[in-house]
Amino acid sequence: RRFGDIEVTVKEAVYDGKYLRVVHATRDLNAKEPFDADAVWNGNFTFEAAEKEGVWWNSLDWAIVNGQTVMPLGEAGATAGPNPGETLAWIQFDLSEMGTLKTLDVSLPIRGRKSIEERELGFLLEADTLPGVRALMPAPDARFSDYTARVTEVLISPIRIYLTMELEADAGVSPERV
User: Fold this and answer.
1) Residues 144/33, Cβ–Cβ less than 8 Å
2) How far apart are CA 78 and CA 61, in angstroms?
3) What b/e string do you get for 157-173 counting C-beta neighbours within 10 Å, with b at 16 or more?
4) 6-19, pLDDT tens digit by residue?
């Protein structure tokens, strides 16, 4: 999508049934050489052309997935891209509360709170098959002196490894111990 002399594209979008990770490129179409990667990575960089156009090049405050607003999890990262005047930014969104999704209709707020038509960078992502996602059988419960540890989920994906564990304290165990 083009905003004046700035072009923004989605380079990669990966969904593993819980998280959506997006990499988007922002490029100054008038630039003649790549940006300094160290300066971009370390925050010693101002992307003047993108900021002039009101384009959020290094982070996103939210996304809209299937009509629902979702917030990013953790910090975004940005670095210089290989092309002249290009930055790459990646951000991830926790979609685990949305249940099983077969298709993701994603809208990214590239220009903040302007109208949808002025800001949207959207895409569809089919999610009915999740290559590389594998659930493992949880280990048996482990009993300790006054509590039990129970693994309820182990999921390996291209994005991350998920491990959900519950700790169950015996009756009468002090709040300090718990």
Assistant:
1) no
2) 14
3) bebeebeeeeeeeeeee
4) 999 999 998 888 88
Question: Any idea which residue has 């491990």 for tokens?
Answer: 163
* Residue-by-residue DSSP string for the chain: -EETTEEEEEEEEEE-SSEEEEEEEEEETT--S---HHHHHHT----HHHHHTT---S--S-EEETTEEE-B-S--EEEE-SSTTEEEEEEEEE-GGG---SEEEEEEETTTTS-HHHHEEEEEEE-SS-TT-EEEPPPPPEE-SSEEEEEEEEEE-SS-EEEEEEEEEPTT--TTT-
Task: Return d(Cα 165, Cα 139) in angstroms, integer.
Answer: 10
> Residue 86's pLDDT band (boundaries 50, 70, 90)?
very high
Token couple for 60 = 């996103």
Tokens, residue 22: 């997006």
